[in-house]
Structure formats: C-alpha cells, structure tokens
Design goal:
mainly alpha, Growth Hormone, Chain: A, 2 domains, 16 helices, 75% helix
Length: 448
C-alpha cells in the first residue's frame, strides 16, 4: 500500500482497524531481530509468535464482550436500572480511550513485550474482580480496569502483528487486525451466552475460563521475541495529543456520519441488545443474548475478508446503504414483533458495520502521510468510541424513564439518519472528485 496521499481513491487498501498507529505501521521501519538490549534471545519462532499474537488479540476482544449476555442476570440479581447497565458499559469505553490516548505510542519507546505484559496483568486483575463481584461498584471497577487493559493492548497487539507480518504475505497483518476485533466480540458474547445458559455459576464460569486464557497469554508473551528497539521519549509519549492536519479535515469530517452510525449501533447491541431480546421479544435464553451481539459482529468480521480488495469509495457507499437498510429492517422487526425481521436486519447491518470500519480507516490510511497517521487515527478512534458509548448511556437513561421499546425506535431512527447523511456525504465526495478530475483534464487539454 502506497503511503502517498495522492493515491487513486479507487485503489483497494489493506484492512486497517481503529487502533492508534505506532512506528510499526510505517512499512519502511526496520524489524529488529534481537532484543532491545542487543542480545539475541530464544523464544517463539516468528510464525508461531504471529499466530500467538493474533490469538491474544481475539482473547482480549472476546473478554470485552463477555459481560454483555450477563447484564440481564446482573440486573435481575442486583435490581439496577438500564441507566446503570449502560454506565457499566460506558466506563469500559472510558478506560479504553484513556489508555489509547496515554499509552498508544509507549511500546515504540520501551518495547512491545513490557506493554503487553502490563496489559495482560491488568486484564487478569479485571477477571478476578468479575469473579468476586457482588455488587455494581465492583462490576464498574472491573469494567474500567478491563477498558484500560484492552486499550493498552490493542495498539501494541496491532503494532506487533505488523512487526511479525510474514514477508510472503504482506497483507496478512492487515486482514487479521481488521477481522480480529469483531470476530472476538462475537465469539465472546456467544460463548458467554452458552456458558451462562448451560454451565454452572453463570456469572463466574466464563471469567474463570478467560482468566486461564489470560494466564496462557502471559506465558506466550514471555516467550515472544521483542520486535521494537528501545528509544528515548517514553515519558513524552504519555502526553495525550489530538490534532488533524488542515488538509485532512474535510476528508475526516466526511467520514464522521458513518463512524457515528456504525459505532453507535454497535454500542446499542453490546449494552442493551440482550435486554431488547429478553423484554421486547420474550427471549429469556442467555444464548440468545449472546447471539444478538454475534449476529452483528459475525457478519462484520466476514465482511473484512470479503471486501478487503474493494475500492474504498465503493465500500463506503455500500456500507452506508447496508447500515441504513439493515437498521430499518431491524426497526420494522421491533415494531412488528417479528424476530425473523429483527435478526435479518441485524445481520445486514453487521455487514455494513464491517464495511464501514474497513473503508473508513482504510481511507484515512490512504490520505495521510506516515507521520500524520498517529494523530489522525487517534482522532478518528476517539470519535468512534465516543459514538460507541455516549449514545448507549443516553439510551439507558431513556429506557429507564421512557421505555425500552420507544428508546429502541428513536435510537434506530437516529442510526438511519446518520447512515443517510453518510450516503449523502459519500455522494458529494465522489461528485467533487469527478469535478476535480474533469477540471484537470480540461486544463491538460488547454495546456497542450
């Protein structure tokens, strides 16, 4: 993938996930073969290390969605409102954003392994807190710690995959980092739903198993070859900084509607989705609660593979249309109490969700110089995760005071409106690009 910002907009791009880029995202950066101390160290081979990091990435994402099917159980046992439920979800996102902004570039300075080891240790603490949780305060603390751990891990895991990417398969890291988040989210929610429905101790078993996985992840990281050289500036890298180069602002603004539409929809499903299934459709099975999330995230992860070679402009338009259409079908299902329509609409919207993430961040990677990507991706990521959390909290408050059905209708209508705005923005960008091309051709003819 070329780093030139003038690259043809119809050129397919490697999938890019919403993680803050580090030095590893620069294809010109060398990949060291030794530890930062200069001494070679024994450990996992590069192919095994690559597969291990991909598995750890999926583990973190699966753990982040595991609480979703359990929210209904917590709500029944501890008698808290939908507002509190979505607040539990929101503190996770707050911790993640804070970690991304503060720790996003730290592994470029102190190495990948120390940051990953710290993130894994924090994730283990979060799992223990989930296991012993007896009230909402412990649950809130667990989710916040988990958010910090996940935020610290996401950036470093993505950078490590780029470091270890096989030379014979240059796009593999991009595909894995593009599909791992949504695949992990769907896997975690569905797996937790099955365990909660059929296993003992529904609010603890999944966290015990995840804790075992986290311990195994720690062992793998201990054997991981260090892929980043130590360099000065670690303390300075901890200072949060957001900014976008003036020439990139119009392109970023054009992407805001689809970022808001897709991530707001994801936030609704991960926070209130199981409650909608239980209260509006009468589906009390915890498997269904997990399946609600999987129906959205599963198609999203598959879409990253299927559309990875498509031009970004075409993918953005398709994604916006599918988000609009899928959400509309899902809304009709809620209105008509049709489970089939709601499920089909969710799956269609899931394809739009995956396509929007793929093309949005692919577009940003295409238009920005390597030195600009860090700040640009950080801003886009903050926009995405604010849309992921704030509307969900507002929806929780509305569900408590107005009703879950009314809230679902208004929320879906807002997603549809932002999807329509995204379609309009994409049409305007395409029309402007065509006009620019036409003017360039006319100017070329006149010069000739």
């Amino acid at each position: 993938m070329s780093d030139a910002p003038t690259r043809d907009k119809n050129t397919p791009v490697t999938p890019v996930t919403p993680v803050t880029p580090t030095a590893a995202t620069d294809p010109a950066a060398p990949v060291p073969a030794a530890s930062p101390t200069g001494r070679a160290r024994r450990g996992l081979s590069r192919p095994v290390a690559f597969a291990s990091i991909a598995a750890v990435f999926i583990l973190f994402m699966a753990a982040s969605s595991a609480p979703s099917p359990l929210y209904v159980i917590y709500q029944q046992e501890w008698s808290f409102s939908a507002t509190t439920l979505t607040s539990v979800f929101a503190v996770y996102v707050a911790g993640m954003i804070a970690a991304l902004l503060v720790l996003g570039a730290l592994s470029d300075h102190i190495g990948r392994r120390p940051v990953l080891a710290t993130a894994i240790a924090l994730e283990a603490v979060a799992m223990v807190l989930f296991i012993v949780a007896g009230d909402v305060s412990i649950l809130l603390t667990a989710r916040f710690v988990q958010g910090i751990a996940t935020g610290a891990a996401m950036t470093t895991l993505g950078a490590t995959l780029v470091d270890l990417n096989p030379p014979h398969a240059p796009h593999r890291a991009g595909v894995i980092t593009g599909a791992a988040p949504t695949f992990g989210l769907g896997l975690g929610a569905l797996g937790c739903g099955v365990l909660a429905q059929y296993g003992p101790h529904p609010t603890r078993l999944v966290y015990v198993l995840l804790l075992a996985g986290v311990v195994l992840a720690g062992l793998l990281v201990a054997l991981l070859p260090e892929t980043a050289q130590r360099r000065p500036g670690a303390a300075r890298s901890l200072r949060p900084r957001l900014g976008v180069a003036p020439r990139l602002r119009s392109d970023l603004i054009a992407l805001v509607p689809i970022l808001v539409a897709s991530w707001a929809l994801g936030g609704l499903y991960l926070s209130l989705g199981p409650s909608v299934a239980a209260n509006l459709f009468g589906l009390s099975s915890h498997v269904i609660g997990g399946l609600v999330v999987t129906l959205l995230c599963g198609p999203a992860s598959v879409t990253v593979f299927l559309l990875r070679g498509w031009p970004t402009e075409r993918t953005l338009a398709l994604a916006a249309g599918l988000l609009l259409g899928g959400t509309a079908v899902g809304l009709a299902g809620v209105q008509e109490h049709s489970l089939t329509m709601a499920a089909v609409g969710t799956a269609i919207a899931g394809v739009g969700f995956g396509g929007s993430a793929l093309a949005s961040f692919g577009t940003l990677a295409r238009i920005a110089e390597p030195a600009e990507r860090g700040e640009l991706f950080a801003v886009a990521f903050v926009i995405s995760y604010l849309a992921f959390s704030i509307p969900a909290v507002v929806a929780g408050f509305a569900a408590t005071n107005v009703g879950l059905h009314e809230t679902s209708v208004v929320y879906s209508a807002a997603v549809i409106a932002f999807s329509a705005l995204a379609l309009a923005a994409q049409w305007l960008r395409t029309a402007r690009a065509r006009n620019d091309d036409r003017r360039d051709r006319i100017a070329g003819i006149q010069d000739w």
